[in-house]
Amino acid sequence: MTEKIAPDDMSREDKKRLAHVENKDLMPLPPPLDDPSRDRNWASLSAQVKEKYECDLDDTCAVNVPRPKSKEEERALVEKFLSGLDKLFTRENNWTFLQPLVLTMEHCAKCQTCSEACHIYEASGGNELYRPTYRSEIMRRLYFKYVRHGGLLSAWQHGDIHLNWPLVARLIELSYRCNLCRRCAQTCPIGADNGLVAHELRKLFSQEMGIAPKELHDRGSMLQLEVGSSTGMNPIVVKDNIAFIDDDTTERTGVKVETPWDVEGAEVLLIHNAGEIMAWPENPGAFALVLNAAGIPWTLSSDMAAYDAINYGLWYDDVQLARVAIKHAEAAKKLKVKKIVLGECGHAHKALSVIGDRILTGNLNIPRESGLTFLRDIVMSGRLKLDPSRNDFPVTLHDPCNVVRLMGVVKPQREIVRKICPQFREMEPHGVDNYCCGGGSGFAIMSGNNFQDWRFRVAGRKKLQQILTAFSDCLGPETPKYICAPCSNCKGQIRDMLAYYGLWDKHRILYGGLVELIVNAMVGVRPGYIQWEWH
Amino acid sequence: MTFMVSGVVLAAALVFTIGSVARAFRYARFPIHLRWELYPVPHESARRVQHGGSYFEEVNWWTKPTRFNLLGEVRFMVPEMLFLKGLWEFNRAMWVRSFPFHFGLYLLIATIGLVGVTAVFDLIAPAVVAGALGVGLHWLYTLTGFSGVILAILGAVALLLRRLTAEDLKTYTTAGDIFNLCVFIVTLGILLGGFLLKSLDSPSTVALVQAIFTFDASVRIPGLLAGGLVLSGFLAAYIPFTHMSHFIGKYFTYHSVRWNDQPLRPGGRMEKKLAEYLTYRPTWAAKHVGADGTRTWAQVATTNPAERGKKK
Questions:
Q1: How far apart are CA B122 and CA B276, in angstroms?
Q2: CB-hemisphere CA count at 13 Å for B173?
Q3: Of residues A211, A221, A207, A190, the one with CA closest to residue A90
Q4: pLDDT tens profile A91-107
Q5: CA closest to B246 among chain A residues
Q6: CATH of the domain at B107
Q7: Residue B239 has pLDDT above 70, yes or no
Q8: Which residue of A183, A193, A407 is the best one to mutate when testing the B interface, meaning the one whose CB has the most B CBs within 10 A?
Q9: Inter-chain contact A111–B169, Cβ cutoff 8 Å?
Q10: What is the C-alpha to C-alpha distance for residues A115 and A392, in angstroms, rounded to an integer?
Q11: CA nearest B38: which of A193, A491, A224, A411?
Q12: Domains contained in chain B, number
């Protein structure tokens, strides 16, 4: 581990990273990953990347901010940062989060209670850089110095900070070392919220400086607004793909599956994360089968952005968030549906149901419902004939933060798995005390440079520990095991981690969604909907 | 001396009240923000609060009546406010230092209340105070006062030592943090010393309070005690202007943020406020935002930057 660092170190001009994590520093994992010497080595950032981009924070680089070419350029960027900082604290620019942000700025007691709650801090072996308050402390000092214009007395009371381009550049990166899971905020005795600080910093960088990871902005929200989906699928392609999924599901299950499109007056507009359509087609296929079997009048929409529930603005940009949420609501309004049901996508749940709630005013306020609640109602109503013995393998449940801690949907998914999975076992802790998968806040789709190494070894380590502990009694390859992760981003992160550590190859740990388990247990369906193969 | 003490104490009480109200007023006037709640939310229905569930767990939740579980909030708030339950659960090492400090302060606040009540009764119904009730009150405020000041001093010393020695706290501790704790220790120490060392012929606590509130210069306040009271006044007046006013901030972080799960209902007050915010004119400078200070939030949010790019 690197030497002890303090907030002031962020301003260092030596172009050296502030923190470094070795394998031996990391939080130990349970068997079969309990030997750190057999752990893979970190990939290093190339000299070219280090030369070209601002990568002076730690071992990785998520945002790829080009290094300024002159001191003048640096000064202009710092000015821009200050201008954005100021805007974060004005009601005209940031009415959306002004109150929680000011409260967090003014009321941290620096007791460090939050540190123990942070999976990233714990997994890194307690690296100071990843302490939740490290980032917040810098922001707080900047707030008192430059927004409140506190002067010497304020510096004495709140601490001083030297603002320069190296600090801003490192802060850009540091705002992408937090999953925004807000587990830290849950434990704060005063209610300060370090996750919010990371969120607001990201907004400042995006909305004022136009800086955000390409995966979230150019290839994320902008692509969605341009062609309809961050996957690049336009309405014609998505319809083609769904038709293929319908055929495939029909073939696999022996049940005719047909997905309705653009049905005016349908009861339900279902919106999937379009990543499911591309990466896990069995999920939308299973949804279609279940909804048809339950006799639900439902539809998908082929309107711009309405067939992709993703809303990456949630993680970095309020304006992009609002634009996509409005597109979703407009599609529902046009079809005159009674409600929008969100598929298995955590951040889409939060974006449209919780955060979007105070954006969608007037006739855009179409009721939104969690797909998990909706499925629970179907399963518990007895409309489907289910045989739990078809799911007689060890199953554990991952709680997506956006659905559970940040939305309070805890029980429906449990009622389902308890009913149809005889070998269900909880991870510990679970429910609202869960740990993030490590892919939260966009990390699951961010893989530039060696970011994956950091994502799997640090951000995802706690989840990996939980998974291995949950299956500790059946780790052998003779027992297939299933991690039920009802969220696309979580599934992506878990898939990548299982592959990285070879846990499917050697231990037969598979992952998948919730609705697939339901179809796998349906009596009228050909057995074996869950295919025990890597995908 | 008494006149000065009266002036400082009453002025401090006024500054404390005005400072606290102004801070609370400032927080309350911020715009309604986007929802940012954290579960569990204790005013959820009793059957859901146990597992941290929300009304989103119900199918067609918007058709169901909204129930506010006040008892659930009280059940959460009382142990949190009195015993710092959250700190007990998540940071025991800090709790053993912070709890005595805070509980000591609560006891001191209770002492002020009890002495105040006794002083008022003494003026309007002296016979009552002269009897058993008066004796009981005397012993009660003596107990709360001494135990409060001792607990608060011990807690403050323990917090100070931890701030100075624990690696995880040292890095983030400012000169102001040290000063604040030292002021508590010195002020409360002098106050305690003033009470312990005052001579037997000094006026009683009740008489002192009456003298302070009536500016009665005929009552002589012992020097050390007067010093303690003046310092206490300055400390009280200082608190609302520091992060030690977290008793105000905490109300808002919990009720306005963590537990604010109020859904938007058509035509309600919230919708009117939101409509007003949508007329604000942001000035965010990034190109994709398209805010130039003349366009409203509503216009910005309904503009597609990708389409704008295509036209060009």
A1: 55
A2: 18
A3: A207
A4: 999 999 999 999 999 99
A5: A107
A6: 1.20.950.20
A7: yes
A8: A407
A9: yes
A10: 39
A11: A193
A12: 2
Question: Which residues in chain B are contacts of A323 at CB distance < 8 A?
Answer: 301-305
Residue B311 has pLDDT above 50, yes or no: no
Nearby residues of A433 by Cβ (< 8 Å), 6 or more positions away:
A183, A186, A405
* N- to C-terminal Cα separation, chain B: 79
Contact A318, B278 (CB under 8 A): no
What is the pLDDT, as a whole number, of residue A4?
85
Is residue B197 located within the same domain as residue B305?
A: no
Q: Is residue B273 part of a domain?
A: no
Examine residue B272 and state whether it is found in any structural domain, yes or no: no
**Is the domain of B231 the same as that of B289?**
no
- The reported pLDDT for the residue numbered B309 is 52
pLDDT of A455 > 60? The answer is yes
Q: Please, which residues have CB within 8 angstroms of residue A493's CB and are 6 or more apart in sequence? A: A437, A438, A439, A440, A443, A444, A455, A460, A463
Burial class (CB in 10 A: 0-12, 13-18, 19+), A269: buried
Partners of A510 in the β-ladder: A482
A228: chain B residues, CB-CB within 8 Å: none
DSSP A261: B
Judge whether A390 and A432 are in contact, CB under 8 Å: no
Contact (Cβ atoms closer than 8 angstroms) between residue A350 and residue A403: yes
Distance between CA atoms of residues A115 and A194, nearest Å: 10
pLDDT beyond 80 at B310: no
How many beta-carbon pairs below 8 A join chains A and B?
275
User: How large is the ipTM?
Assistant: 0.96
Do residues A274 and A307 make contact, with C-beta atoms less than 8 angstroms apart?
A: yes
- Report the DSSP beta bridge partners of residue A522: A386
Q: How many percent of chain B have pLDDT more than 70?
A: 98
What tens digit of pLDDT does each residue of A398-420 get?
A: 999 999 999 999 999 999 999 99
Minimum-distance CB partner of A112 among B37, B59, B169: B169
Question: Rounded to whole angstroms, how far apart are CA atoms A101 and A377?
Answer: 38
Query: Distance (Å, rounded) from C-alpha B294 to C-alpha B276?
Result: 15
Average pLDDT value for residue range A128-153: 96
User: Which residue range(s) make up the domain with B141?
Assistant: 2-258
Q: What is the CA A124 to chain-centroid distance, rounded? A: 19
SS3 at position B246: helix
| pLDDT over threshold 50, residue A529 | yes
* pLDDT recorded at residue B201: 87
Q: Is the pLDDT of residue B141 over 60?
A: yes
pLDDT at A473: 97
Q: B132-165 and B92-124 helices cross at what angle (nearest 10)?
A: 150
Q: Tell me if B84 and A189 make a contact (CB, 8 A cut-off).
A: yes
List the CATH code of the domain at A217-376: 3.40.50.1860
Q: Are residues B297 and B221 in the same domain?
A: no
Q: Considering chain B, what percentage of its residues have pLDDT values greater than 90?
A: 86
Q: Are residues B292 and B246 in the same domain?
A: no
Q: Range with the lowest mean pLDDT among A280-294, A515-529, B169-183, B212-226?
A: B212-226
Is residue B266 included in any domain, yes or no?
Answer: no
Q: pLDDT, tens digit, for every residue of A352-397? A: 999 999 999 999 999 999 999 999 999 999 999 999 999 999 999 9
At A298, phi and psi to the nearest 5?
-135, 170
| pTM score of the predicted model | 0.96
Query: Please, are residues A169 and A56 in contact by the beta-carbon 8 Å criterion?
Result: yes
Chain A interface test: which of B20, B38, B311 (most A C-beta within 10 Å): B38
B144 & B289 share domain: no
